[in-house]
Design goal:
264 residues; alpha/beta; 11 helices; 43% helix
Length: 264
């Protein structure tokens, strides 16, 4: 709301709007108002006594009250930061914002208390020969792998004489509540054990981002371990292989060769 409209509203409510003519120390500067001629003519009749900015008048005798009125009559966006800070520090109205400031300080640590560590990822699982290939989606909320991820996954699956079919999926978290890393690792282990019991498979190859892999298994990638009672190996995620193929494809292929994941 501009100043002219605010003054008009005050007059309509029977209040007496006025603007200080003399800038006082520490007070925000008063805006120069462009009053319509009709409004100037009707102002005394509609709003009672009004101090006209064009009429000479003596300087106010109570300088403590005037800075508050001047600060209220000028828009905040026109006040320099230094002047506004001085006005808040000197004017009596500064006391009224103290409770709000204290409340804001007390509420500031609240987000830290509400912070809960958890993992969010989605895996797409395919069986190729005796190897379960589990690939993390770059977008965990997407319905499947991206258009560049899917062909790369199909190439990996072909290495084990498999082809993409309707995938099994693992979602973390399983519910809307955050899932800590150790609970996610237990759920994933149970998921892999279930895949093996239902459809066979003798080992697991996972394509996971580094942060997810280390949080789940508490060890670096490219090192063998056991998951769901099956031997397992974690290599780079599909998204990392696409973004930096020289580093991540090379490291992944060397790990696969070293631990017997280079074919059926």
């Amino acid at each position: 709301m501009n100043e002219a409209q605010r003054q008009s509203y005050l007059k309509a409510m029977g209040l007496t709007p006025w603007v200080a003519r003399v800038a006082l120390p520490g007070a925000a500067p008063s805006p120069v108002l462009d009053w319509p001629e009709e409004e100037q003519a009707n102002a005394p009749a509609s709003a009672g006594p009004v101090v006209d900015v064009a009429v000479p008048s003596r300087e106010p005798e109570a300088p403590v009250d005037v800075p508050l009125a001047a600060a209220e009559s000028s828009p905040a966006e026109h006040a320099p930061e230094a002047s506004a800070a001085d006005a808040l520090a000197k004017a009596p109205s500064a006391r009224s914002v103290a409770p709000a400031q204290e409340q804001a300080k007390e509420e500031a640590p609240a987000p830290a208390k509400a912070k809960v560590k958890g993992l969010t990822f989605t895996l797409e699982a395919h069986l190729g020969g005796t190897t379960w290939l589990l690939c993390a989606q770059e977008d965990s909320q997407a319905p499947g792998l991206g258009r560049f991820e899917a062909p790369l996954m199909a190439n990996l699956l072909a290495l084990f004489q498999g082809r993409p079919q309707r995938p099994r999926r693992f979602f973390c978290p399983l519910t809307e509540q955050p899932m800590p890393a150790h609970e996610a690792a237990q759920a994933l282990s149970a998921f892999v054990a279930g895949l093996s019991e239902q459809s066979g498979g003798e080992r697991v190859l996972l394509c996971l981002p580094e942060t997810v892999a280390e949080a789940l298994f508490e060890q670096p990638r490219y090192q063998p371990f056991e998951l769901g009672r099956l031997p397992a190996l974690v290599i780079s995620s599909l998204a990392e292989m696409l973004a930096d193929p020289v580093q991540h494809k090379k490291a992944s292929w060397q790990a696969m060769q070293a631990h017997g994941y280079d074919g059926v």
